[in-house]
Amino acid sequence: MKLVRHPHIVQLKEFMATKGEIFLVMEYVKGSELFTKVNKGKLSKNLARMYFQQLISIVDYCRSRGVTYRD
């Protein structure tokens, strides 16, 4: 993920692993998660459209670089 540079993707700064644990040091991002914003209630059409366009942009960007995401 260090190779992925996109304005809507949190940057991976460092990766460390021990026998039993994996540590990811990520870029600090001010604000809240999209999940939190959605759970607060109905989003306006414009805000929902903006978030959706950003998500589609991320998926397209990652696919164009051979990066797959699974949660």
Automatic annotation (TrEMBL):
Residues 1-71 form the Protein kinase domain. It holds the Pfam family Pkinase. InterPro entries: Kinase-like_dom_sf (IPR011009), Prot_kinase_dom (IPR000719). One of its GO terms (biological process) is signal transduction. One of its GO terms (molecular function) is protein serine/threonine kinase activity. PROSITE patterns: PROTEIN_KINASE_DOM. The keyword Transcription does not apply. PANTHER family: CALCIUM/CALMODULIN-DEPENDENT PROTEIN KINASE KINASE-RELATED (PTHR43895), NON-SPECIFIC SERINE_THREONINE PROTEIN KINASE (PTHR43895:SF143). This is Protein kinase domain-containing protein. It comes from Vigna angularis var. angularis.
